[in-house]
Request: fold
Amino acid sequence: MMFMKATGLLSGVSDLICVIPNKVLFIECKDEKGRQQPSQIEFEETVTDLGFEYHVVRSLEEFQKIIQKNTI
Reply:
């Protein structure tokens, strides 16, 4: 963890950042039982306050639906 901080990584940042035409999506991947950590919730609040979309996905199908919705 200290190595990650030393390299400039920010705690709580989403697993995926998808840059698509005219949009940036922040996506956190969790399994069916996974829960966001407090730092992840704080990051979600920050990016949504800035007007970006943030999603928690629990399956590949859910991820695909979000991408398809935002690229059509």
